[in-house]
Amino acid sequence: MKIYTKNGDKGQTSLIGGDRVSKHHVRIEAYGTIDELNSHIGLLRSFVSDELNKHLLSEIQDRLFTLGSLLASAPGSKMVVPDLKTSDIEMLETAIDTMNEALPELRAFILPAGSAEIAHTHVARCVCRRAERLIVQLDELQHVDPNILKYVNRLSDYLFVLARKVAQVQGIAEVNWKPRV
Q: Does 164 have pLDDT greater than 90?
């Protein structure tokens, strides 16, 4: 089977269900950004040493494929795609709460740096926030399952707390942002 179809050569692509839209449609931007985030999570997994977070990041990658398929589905499509469950959101919340218990209280904005692992985690968080903004924009045009927004919002929180936890485990002090006055 050839990887190229030539169907997109004129700037259109097909959604699950058959509808064709411009490749710059906000729906394409949203699930394309989820795909980009998934790649950043894969890169991050190569840096993470603890098996619990490595496993959770693998689960997150699976859920991001689910999100991508949901976002790639044409409104009203009858095609069966995986679904996102409340338990997927709760999984992130549990991980956030567990890591947060061992972290010092956050009293300032922190600079996203310290080690390659910390920096990659923050890059993934920023891509996640961009995906969230695009999904909100899509939701204003066409209804998006509220669990998608909840999941992506929680995921960016998870990535922020994970960056802090990695810094703690690596013994790297967080650098608070000190605004110039």
A: yes
